């Protein structure tokens, strides 16, 4: 029996969970996240713990959000295909094109699953790059670290937007909507707490986000 229906996942799309960065400090912060999430108070769970470094907190949570989206999308790979989703969209008004600025500099129109695959490969490369996400305690973060985090989270939001606006009925039929909603609420509260995604980027799910923030 597989967690969240992962038995039918695409091995290429699904990746093993990433561990916490920054050595023992990252592990300590991960334990703090798990403990505070367990209380059910997501607003408190996203706040920077007293005395902790902001970049350390952003790093550990970014890995967590990558893992969450990775697992959520993996449950839908059977239904999100090049034929069902020939472009990466968030409803009829928003289309996302892929570019990483290095190997692909001109934005490409690609299918949703191809976009997600490019995205997960790109994020994984950032997380594995110790010049960006240091693995050893005491190694400084780069000066552009928060910009990298903002780009990662902005692009992860696009996967949430595609899931909600293209596959939500399938999520409901799989009885995973509560898990999806909890993960997204955590994501929204965290990115809002630290101003990590510009409001214009959140427009596709504006009503859902407003509902989350008003509760």
From TrEMBL:
Highest taxon, organism lineage: Eukaryota
InterPro entries assigned: MOB_kinase_act_fam, MOB_kinase_act_sf
Pfam family, one: Mob1_phocein
Kinase keyword on record: yes
Keywords tagged on the record: Kinase, Transferase
GO molecular-function term, one example from the UniProt record: kinase activity
Keyword 4Fe-4S appears in the UniProt entry: no
Chain spans, region Disordered: 1-27
Gene3D superfamilies: MOB kinase activator
This protein's name: MOB kinase activator-like 1A
């Amino acid at each position: 029996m597989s967690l969240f229906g992962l038995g039918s996942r695409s091995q290429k799309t699904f990746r093993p969970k990433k561990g916490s960065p920054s050595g023992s400090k990252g592990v300590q912060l991960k334990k703090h996240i798990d403990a505070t999430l367990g209380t059910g108070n997501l607003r408190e769970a996203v706040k920077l713990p007293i005395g902790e470094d902001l970049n350390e907190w952003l790093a550990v949570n970014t890995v967590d959000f990558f893992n969450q989206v990775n697992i959520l999308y993996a449950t839908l790979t059977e239904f999100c295909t090049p034929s069902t989703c020939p472009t990466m969209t968030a409803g009829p008004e928003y289309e996302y094109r892929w570019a990483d600025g290095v190997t692909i500099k001109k934005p490409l129109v690609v299918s949703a699953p191809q976009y997600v695959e490019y995205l997960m490969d790109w994020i994984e490369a950032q997380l594995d790059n110790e010049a960006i996400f240091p693995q050893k305690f005491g190694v400084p973060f780069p000066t552009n670290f928060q910009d990298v985090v903002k780009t990662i989270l902005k692009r992860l939001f696009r996967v949430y937007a595609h899931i909600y606006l293209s596959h939500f009925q399938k999520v409901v039929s799989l009885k995973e909507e509560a898990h999806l909603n909890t993960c997204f609420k955590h994501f929204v509260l965290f990115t809002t707490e630290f101003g990590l995604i510009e409001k214009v980027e959140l427009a596709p799910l504006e009503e859902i986000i407003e509902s989350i923030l008003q509760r």
